[in-house]
Design a protein that fits this description.
The chain has 180 residues and is mainly alpha-helical. Helices cover 69% and strands 2% of the residues. The protein has a single domain, classed as Bromodomain-like, CATH 1.20.1550. Strands 1-2 form a two-stranded antiparallel sheet. It is a multi-pass membrane protein.
Length: 180
């Protein structure tokens, strides 16, 4: 009796090496980064703007997908499954780097950001509710940097971290694809 991985060469089981290493690294980096974002928000009270929150989506994808890909690599899953997981990780983190670069450009004034976080306030409603809403609403603007270190904002660091994760996932993809 032959198994699918023995009968079809494309479904040959991949060795855990680069797929496991890359997916674990991406998972750890993503978890550390999102923990840092929550630290800035909850402890240092640096509230995220709408673009900041959108940049977190890639991390919320990368953590479980990276862990699942690592688990699959550890258990000897077929190579196409590992390649798919690594490809999704690479594409998601690369797209996140693009979103972070866009946000950085908004912060530096290179282009305008979305109107919900960098444009004028619209639709204030009726005057009676205005004062009660002003006491409860804090608008965090996407075009105002709340924190910088070495000249980079959190969006700028997101670009660098996302590019690093994309490079690691791409490395894992290429090395896993080349393994025999």
């Amino acid at each position: 009796m032959t198994t699918p991985s023995a009968a079809i060469p494309a479904f040959k089981q991949a060795k855990a090496g680069p797929a496991l290493t890359a997916s674990l690294l991406v998972t750890l980096i993503a978890a550390a980064t999102i923990a840092g974002a929550w630290f800035f928000q909850l402890v240092l009270e640096i509230l995220p703007c709408p673009l900041c929150l959108e940049q977190r989506y890639a991390y919320y994808l990368a953590i479980p997908l990276g862990a699942l890909t690592a688990l699959a690599a550890r258990s000897g899953a077929p190579r196409p499954l590992l390649l798919a997981g690594l490809a999704i990780l690479a594409l998601a983190t690369l797209a996140n780097a693009g979103l972070g670069a866009y946000h950085s450009g908004v912060e530096w004034g290179f282009w305008k950001g979305p109107t919900d976080c960098s444009g004028p306030v619209v639709n204030l409603g009726n005057a009676g509710d205005l004062f009660s809403r002003l006491d409860t609403v804090k608008v965090v603007r996407c075009d105002e940097v709340q924190w910088r270190f070495l000249g980079l904002s959190l969006a700028g660091y997101n670009v660098l971290i996302s590019l690093l994760m994309a490079a690691i996932a791409a490395w894992g993809f290429v090395r896993t694809a080349k393994r025999s």
